[in-house]
Design a protein that fits this description.
Elements (H helix, E strand, L loop, with lengths): L11 H11 L4 E5 L5 E5 H17 L7 E5 L4 H12 L3 E4 L6 H11 L1 E7 L3 H7 L7 E5 L11 E2 H7 L14 E6 L9 E5 H12 L11 E4 L6 H4 L1 H8 L2 E4 L6 H10 L4 E4 L1 H13 L10 E5 L6 H8 L3 E8 L6 E4 L11 H9 L3 E2 L4 E6 L2 E2 L8 E6 L23 E9 L5 E6 L4 E3 L2 E3 L1 H8 L5 E11 L3 E10 L7 H9 L10 E4 L13 H7 L8
Parallel strand pairs: 1-11, 3-4, 3-5, 4-8, 5-6, 6-7, 10-11, 10-12, 12-13, 13-14, 25-26
Antiparallel strand pairs: 1-2, 8-9, 14-15, 15-16, 17-18, 17-19, 19-20, 20-21, 22-23, 24-25
Helix pairs in contact: 1-2, 1-9, 2-3, 2-6, 4-5, 7-9, 10-11
The structure holds adenosine monophosphate.
Length: about 550
């Protein structure tokens, strides 16, 4: 017997319409490039997003056409998040931190027809203009309205568009947005998010175990809107009517802390790099920033070190850890403490909070080893395979990547983890970042996290370097805190409290900064190459 319910499509225009009516007075705050604050509201955003849809349609946008954006986090970018897909297009957020040639290559691969770009980013565009595929370039003015020749002015386009836009017929499985992976493992690959995936993912964002957010929150996405759609927050906040604070290009710790205090942010999200810098600023200037209430810091992208979680707690900044990927829209797991754990000793609670949490509803995870599925015993590790309604089933136009999916339809993530009987996932490493020493695996992530708990260490990255006897041995690249001192012997002794002797790095090198990817993750490949010919002491 079939259910008697309606087959109602899960598409973005429904979210936009609701925000325009029900949350019309809720504020959207943007910090402009000149650091001034601009305030608008969902009512005005609704009107402008629909005008953008009308303007793009007038310019010839057809169903499924890609419209690229090169923008920071601000209200015009939010307009594109809805205006493009509600006109039947696919918003392709370009990662503006990539090399110009790489951006051009990605835009060409995606077949982007139009580009929406911040005026202050035009110098980046100029670097790949001759190689770019765009038919029209639409510039969002932040300072003067004067436009260089050959560009369209976003504000004039919106002013010319009417308020009578009619949505095209959309199927919930139509593409709405597109992101390329950040390329930590080889070439960037494109993922196309359907309306349905984005709607369901937005529901998941509201859950207590994920962002735990609602209309009563003020949300600051520090994660760029080109990194997995700022983790889905622009869609989720609009659906839930949460007050949005968008930081523009200023994501240095002082600017982030200033906004958090002045706008009374209750939830912020970003990679650990952001919060490491924020913690440093707080510890250098105790008393400068005061929070009226605890702030939930949703943190992922890489694992936040346990010490970071502990020390931020002292300032009322409570890290909530989640794991995900561009391919998973991005939420895969999240969680934190369960009710029965609240009376546990602090150290045990921090161990739990440093784990990646458990799978979100409708996200299924299994850990695979060559001999089959690993048990959920908290000790046996395997590669995470994942499936669910917001998990990619393929990459855009990349038939050579079909091997990333199993014959029975699970996505092979390349992340290696353990799971315990309650479903808590603990990422041990990227498959290729494990150090294989004399046939035994060493987790570089565990070593890094422990090292970052040493009082003199700001950041640490551990990589496997070829070794004549052991195939590979771990080398730790360490960035010390300003003015702090530590010797390799001290760091080894510190690690020896938690690790077996054979697991300890054989070399410690002190460097000024760890090379990072465009979204702030450690670029282990670069370090491996830098130290490839390391002369080990025999
Ligand atoms: P991206 O597609 O750029 O978001 O990168 C996804 C990858 O980032 C994952 O496959 C993991 O290797 C890593 N990652 C994301 N979140 C976490 C986390 N909480 N802990 C450890 N690694 C993470």
């Amino acid at each position: 017997m079939r259910g008697t319910m309606m087959d109602y499509p899960l598409t973005l225009p429904t979210i936009l319409e609701r925000a325009g009516k029900i949350f019309s007075r809720v504020e959207i705050v943007s910090r402009k490039p000149d650091k001034s604050i601009a305030r608008t509201c969902y009512g005005e955003f609704y009107r402008r997003a629909r005008r953008l849809a009308a303007a793009l349609t007038k310019l010839g946008l057809q169903a499924g056409d890609r419209v690229a954006s090169m923008m920071w986090n601000h209200s015009a970018h939010l307009e594109a998040f809805f205006g493009v897909p509600c006109a039947g297009g696919v918003l392709h957020t370009l990662n503006l931190r990539l090399h110009a040639h790489e951006i051009a290559g990605i835009a060409k691969h995606a077949g982007d027809r139009f580009l929406l770009i911040d005026d202050i980013l035009l110098p980046v565009y100029e670097k790949f203009r001759s190689d770019a595929p765009f038919e029209k370039v639409i510039v969002v003015p932040h300072g003067s309205d004067a436009m260089p020749d050959g560009f369209l002015n976003y504000e004039l386009l919106l002013a010319d568009a009417g308020d009578d836009f009619r949505y095209p017929q959309l199927d919930e499985n139509d593409g709405a947005a597109m992101c390329f992976t950040s390329g930590t493992t080889g070439h960037s690959k494109g993922v196309i998010y359907s309306h349905r995936a984005l709607v369901l993912h937005s529901f998941a964002c509201g859950l207590g175990e994920v962002f735990g957010m609602s209309h009563f929150d003020t949300v600051l996405p520090v994660a760029p809107m080109f990194h997995a759609n700022a983790w889905g927050l622009p869609f989720a906040c609009t659906m839930l009517g949460a007050r949005l604070v968008l930081p523009g290009p200023s994501v240095d710790p002082e600017s982030v802390l200033g906004l958090m205090v002045s706008e009374r942010v209750s939830i912020a999200c970003g990679v650990p790099t952001v919060w490491i810098a924020v913690l440093e600023a707080l510890e250098k200037n105790p008393g400068r920033w005061k929070f009226d209430a605890p702030v939930r810091i949703v943190c992922g992208g890489t694992a936040p070190p346990l010490e970071l979680i502990r020390r931020l707690d002292r300032y009322g900044l409570q890290i909530k850890h989640l794991w995900g990927m561009t391919e998973t829209t991005p939420i895969g797991t999240s969680g934190g403490l369960r009710p029965h754990m609240h009376d546990w000793p602090d150290d045990e609670k921090y161990e739990i909070r440093a784990k990646q949490g458990w799978p979100a509803p409708f996200v299924e995870i299994r850990l695979m080893r060559p001999e089959g599925e690993a048990p959920w015993d908290g000790a046996t590790s395997g590669e995470i395979e994942i499936r669910g309604p917001w998990v990619a089933a393929s990459y855009y136009d990349s038939p050579d990547q079909a091997h990333r999916w199993t014959a029975d339809g699970w996505f092979r993530t390349g992340d290696v983890a353990t799971m315990d009987e309650a479903g808590y996932v603990k990422i041990v490493d990227r498959a290729k970042d494990l150090v294989k020493s004399g046939g035994e695996w060493i987790s570089s992530v565990d070593l890094e996290n422990t090292l970052m708990g040493h009082p003199a260490v700001k950041e640490a990255c551990v990589v496997g370097i070829p070794h004549p006897k052991w195939q590979e041995r771990p080398l730790a690249a360490v960035v010390l805190k300003d003015g702090a001192q530590a010797t390799p012997e001290e760091l080894r002794a510190f690690l020896a409290q938690s690790f077996a002797k054979w697991q300890l790095p054989d070399a410690f090198v002190f460097i000024d900064a760890i090379p990072r990817t465009s979204v702030g993750k450690f670029k282990k490949l670069a370090l491996r190459e830098q130290f490839a010919n390391w002369k080990w002491e025999s």
